[in-house]
Structure formats: structure tokens, C-alpha cells
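User: Predict the structure for this protein chain, please.
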Amino acid sequence: MIIVMQTGVQEKEIQQVVTRLEEVGLGVHLSKGEFRTIIGAIGDEKIVRAMGLEALSFVEKVLPITQPFKLVSREFQDENSVFTVGDCTIGGDQVVLMAGPCAVESEEQLLEAAVGVKAAGAQILRGGAFKPRTSPYAFGGLEEEGLKMLARVREKTGMPIVTEVMDQHTVGLVSEYADIVQVGTRNMQNFYMLRELGKLNKPILLKRGLSATIEEWLMAAEYIMSGGNHQVILCERGIRTFETYTRNTLDLSAVPVVKHLTHLPIIVDPSHGTGSWRWVPAMSRAAVAAGADGVMIEVHPHPEKALCDGAQSLTIEKFTNVCHQLEQVAAVFGKHIKKVTV
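Assistant: Here is the predicted structure, written as C-alpha cells:
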């Protein structure tokens, strides 16, 4: 249930409602918008209905949330959530570019990629230290040593880093190094891990599962938010269909659907979505045109030598061209790409 407060409500009146909800064992989430304050009551809706809160002069109305996802729902919070990471904002009028190699292979490779993508226009460095792979014989990442390399490259470049966590046991380790913790597609419904991520005070990048519906994806976000961490960024990275010409089917229709259903920001990963560098520029442009808050693109200084996903990685030169294109697309829709000082 959500309790919509009257315009101009006083802080003591807000606290009065919060206290009453807490006294009957309900969870409370407070959302203060520019024009309206909304209090979310988490728990048994029957209890909220029986409290008679609408009788208070400073309560405008009490409404049920019809969606199965509560905190994620735009019914709960109408204004878009905006998160700050380093010098960039995610969810506002800025299109955020996250770029870097699929896997951290060496500090030299990572630094070369970071310097290149930053010069091109990327604000956030992506790189995998833990790599969940389909084959047990494929390169699985440098793990903690890879995290340390990411941290050292962040010191040299000033770029915040986003990197993937494998399971609930490594949440603490990865969160020590990462500015944004990524949940990969295979872990979208790892509910033990999602609960651990709900305890962090750090943005979580939640990728859509291989065959997940949008509702299942948003319910996974609900797990994180119900644990207390409301900094969730959704990432569409393609779903598995009958099509074999691309690695996955990039569901760009998910972008406007998610924007309608939830207040959370959404970015698109065209690299995993297509599996081929040839299609990444077009899908990146389409993602921004569809309303995405950013894109995550795999970039490698030498894709032909990459230990992981070289076929879908752009060279630094190709990524630079994509950035110029995205600047133009973003401008059409009243958005911009923040200029980075190299």
C-alpha cells in the first residue's frame, strides 16, 4: 500500500504516519518527490486498510499497489530514480556509456582499454574479474587479482568500475572494489545472492535472465530493494529465442515497457544482445532512441587476441565512432553524453 501525503505536509506529520506503521510491524519506505511525499507500507495490506489513515487531514489517499512488484513499481514512485556514480548520473537526462573488456586479462590490457574508452567518451569502466562461463574449460577470470587490477586502473584513470559478482559468498569481496556491482544473467534469480546485495549501500546492475519475462526480472529487482538497497539499475542484454543468427535476441521493446512499469533506470548491453561487433553500433543507436539511460559495450584493444568474447568486442577506434553517433541520437531526444576530461 502507498500513503499519499497532502501537498505541503510537515515533517512531524510524516513521522506520525511512519511511527504508526512501524508500531504495527509494517516496513516503511519514504519517497519525497518535488511535489509529493509518498510513504510505502510493506506488509499485510489488510492491516493498513484497518488503520484509517485517510481520516488524517494531512493524508490525501491510501492506495493499493496492483503490481506484484511493489517497491519497483511506478505506482509506488512516479518520479524516475536517479543514481550518482562518480561524476555521472544514471536515470536522468544523461546517457551513460559503460565500456571496457569482457574479461580483465592483464593490467596492461585493462589500462589500454580504459584510457581508450575514456578518451572516446565512456564514463564508467566495465571489466570482468569473475567470469561465469558455459564451458568449464573456458577462461574463468582472474578473480581477486582481477579486482585489484580494476582498482589500480581506477586510480590511474578516475573511472568508476562495474564488475560482476558470482555468488552470495563473494558479494563482500566484490563490493570492496566495485563502484557498481553487476548481477549476470545466470544469477538473476539467485535469490540468496540478491538478498545479500539488498544489504549493500551501492548501485546494483541487474541483468535480465536468459529466458526471463519482464515481470520475473522486476521481481528479482524487488528482492534487492526489499532488503533495503534501492539503487538498482536494470540491464537488457538479450533473451534466448529460436533465432540463431545472433547470439541472443536483443529485446529493445523492454526499454519502453520497463519505463512504463517502473521508476528504475535501464541500460542496454548490445554486445551480449547480438554477439557480433557488426551489429553493436546499430543496436546502441536504437537503444538510446528507445529511451535507454545508457549502454554497456564491450571494447578490447585487440579483439582478435581476447580471451573472452572477442567476436562481439569493438576496437577502440570503432567505439569512438559509436560514441559520436550516440551523441547525435541523444541530442534528438533532449539528452546528452557527459564530456569526460582525459
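The longest helix spans residues 316-332.
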